[in-house]
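Section 5: illustrative case.
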């Protein structure tokens, strides 16, 4: 399905069951419904979902605090991976946050997740530092950052 066939919208509570299914398919220690509910209740948080027709293809959860964007969680349903959706979600969130003075974005990614690291590099992120033992299973995280030129 061409990328222009996708719709990106703010997540609604009715989307939660499908989001949780993608979350379970994507992570060894998935977020719970309570995690997502906390983001609904958080005034600095946003969750964007991408739809392919009537199917939820993925989502991105973020915080924006005084021009600094933190990507908390991004996942694409297995049947929609490697189609450019994650990159489009990131660009969409950058555009939303640019309206509120986006200066910098950052995220953590598993050091073993080469495909995600490549995606983030394509989106202008660079490796900053390694956070040893960051994940529950002891794996290290790579902190990646992207600065935005707002001059």
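Designed sequence:
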């Amino acid at each position: 399905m061409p990328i222009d066939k996708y719709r990106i919208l703010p997540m609604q509570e009715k989307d939660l069951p499908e989001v949780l299914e993608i979350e379970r398919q994507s992570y060894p220690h998935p977020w719970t419904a309570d995690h997502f509910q906390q983001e609904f209740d958080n005034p600095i948080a946003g969750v964007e979902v991408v739809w392919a027709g009537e199917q939820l293809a993925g989502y991105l959860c973020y915080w924006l605090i005084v021009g600094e964007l933190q990507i908390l969680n991004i996942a694409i349903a297995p049947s929609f991976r490697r189609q450019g959706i994650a990159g489009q979600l990131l660009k969409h969130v950058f555009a939303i946050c640019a309206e509120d003075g986006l200066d910098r974005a950052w995220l953590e990614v598993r050091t073993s997740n080469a495909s995600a690291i490549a995606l983030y590099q394509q989106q202008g992120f660079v490796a900053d530092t390694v956070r040893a033992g960051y994940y529950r299973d002891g794996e290290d995280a790579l902190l990646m950052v992207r600065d935005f030129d707002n001059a």
